[in-house]
Amino acid sequence: MAATAIGADVADSISGTASGVLNTGAQLGTAIGVAALLLLAAGVAGTAVAWAVAAGLAGLTALALLPRAGAARVAESP
Q1: Domain around 7
Q2: What whole-number percentage of the chain has pLDDT above 90?
Q3: In whole angstroms, how far apart are CA 38 and each of 41, 42, 69?
Q4: Confidence (pTM)
């Protein structure tokens, strides 16, 4: 069994497919996020607000992922 970045176990026979799905999801998420920030900057608020929103979202994401990172380190310890 191969483990993916999100912690799901997948069979070795489909590990390439799982990797492709995760990479595609990351690319789509990035593209949609950039498009939303550009929309916010161009039409609604301006670049300063768009940068502030991006920084806030990045910070919230980092805080949300911190517990997972700690749990992964504990699980990997011998």
Answers
A1: 2-76
A2: 1
A3: 5, 6, 30
A4: 0.52
